[in-house]
Amino acid sequence: MTDAFNLSDFLPYRLALISERVSRRLEAEYAKSHGLSVAEWRVLVNLRHLGKASVRDIQVVTNLEKSRVSRAVGRLEAAKLVRKETSASDARLVEIALSRKGRTTLAEIIPKATEIEGRLLDGLSADQLGAFDAVVEHLHAALDADPEAKPRLDTTLGAKG
Amino acid sequence: MTDAFNLSDFLPYRLALISERVSRRLEAEYAKSHGLSVAEWRVLVNLRHLGKASVRDIQVVTNLEKSRVSRAVGRLEAAKLVRKETSASDARLVEIALSRKGRTTLAEIIPKATEIEGRLLDGLSADQLGAFDAVVEHLHAALDADPEAKPRLDTTLGAKG
DNA sequence: CCCCTATCGTTGCACCTGCAACGAATTATT
DNA sequence: AATAATTCGTTGCAGGTGCAACGATAGGGG
Question: Which residue is nearest to nucleotide C20 (CA to C1')?
Fold first, then answer.
């Protein structure tokens, strides 16, 4: 067992490798054009649908640590891509919303991101994609069942279950 | 196009999510028992096969930045899990090798890692796994063909080929 | 033998991150 | 109404990372 262990075949390693590689390819795109990090990109994209959102809202949807969201929002605000103000109804909350500049920035980046994704997926059959999705979901399910694993926040399929 | 964009379905996001979740689960295991980071773990595992290796050797096999390897090795040396000495034949090179303690540490961790991986994969059919592998390889190939993407170092299938 | 170039590993720097602790604000309890 | 418990977002801190620059060493060409 121990002697046969090979990192190249090890699932966590393979996932990390392909994920990082894809991520870097994408980051090269929107970092170069607009200086965005992954965290900022995730926040920005989700704000499109959310309208006004709190840090907590964003945290759930983006699967990012709340301090990471807080700082990403801070940077986005400094870059004038989002506006941030304290909620009138609950002073603990912050209302974050896209600025016009943020919207135009997204309008530039999203097509590029979609195109890159398209190139990556080009040539894969529906069956392959379906199988891939099934495996990923299986992994998530296995982690959900593991008390040692951190729970996933947003399944986009109903948080309550 | 732009309006339909949904992060939850975006491949890079999904990859990052599952990869990070798996990675954290694993890290919880070997960080708790031996205080190892991902980088250190990768270095350690590869040293099992390499015997004596230089930083560059490790860099290729682990797909880690050379400074990251250098620092991981430094930490491993401080923890007495590896020995490090300058090569006699080429003073630029460093010869890194597992210590006895490093070997016993690996002997403890690898079974746990394998077990966790087993639980993650348990219940998946050979067909599903094959399809998954095919998709991952397809993604790598697509990135290989993309001049903007960073080349992959170790394919374990012949670097020159 | 000397210079020029390439390789190797380390390090300074700026940045990002996770975690825990914190203050402010709200809600629940009595 | 007063106090306790909870929620929200920020921040201090320690640590990891990528990148570029660097010193040291080795090899190649004249």
Answer: A67
